[in-house]
Specification:
Layout: E1 21-30, H1 31-37, E2 66-70, H2 73-89, H3 101-113, E3 119-124, E4 128-137
Antiparallel strand pairs: 1-2, 1-4, 3-4
Length: about 140
């Protein structure tokens, strides 16, 4: 589905070489933990266990949040959509039928290709929230 809308580049991205690979991040916590993390007076915003405020800041978080690494944008997109589809089945509130994975996949790939790093989140049954992000990097981190 093409809407004719262009995706704005990520204004927070670092200048430099094009990404050589893509980090696929996963973070989850229970509702009480999420609420605690939302109180800036109880935990530093840059704390290591807190998801980043800016998507690109995943790159400075602990490597334990890296769930996968891919060299191709399509592979990173496939990981993101697969994670989201699995969570969709366990969603606390049913995801409407009109929210199609194919449409999300097209938008996610375009976002990755234009360095506008996609992030998804979903509340699951049992009061757990999950966040996923794909961020490209050229850093020699492996």
């Amino acid at each position: 589905m093409t809407t004719g809308h262009s995706i704005a580049p990520d204004a927070s991205k670092r200048d430099g070489p094009a990404p050589t690979h893509f980090h696929c991040y996963r973070w989850s916590a229970g509702g009480q933990e999420w609420e605690r993390l939302g109180k800036t007076d109880t935990l530093d915003v840059a704390g290591p266990d807190r998801p980043p405020v800016r998507t690109v800041d995943w790159l400075i978080k602990s490597a334990r949040f890296v769930a996968a690494v891919h060299a191709e944008p399509k592979d990173a997109r496939d990981w993101l959509i697969s994670e989201w589809e699995q969570a969709r089945e366990k969603a606390l509130n049913p995801v409407p039928e009109w929210v199609r994975s194919q449409d999300r996949a097209e938008r996610a790939l375009r976002a990755i290709e234009t360095a506008c790093w996609p992030t998804y989140s979903q509340w699951l049954t049992g009061g757990v929230i999950v966040l996923w992000s794909v961020v490209g990097t050229a850093d020699h981190c492996h």
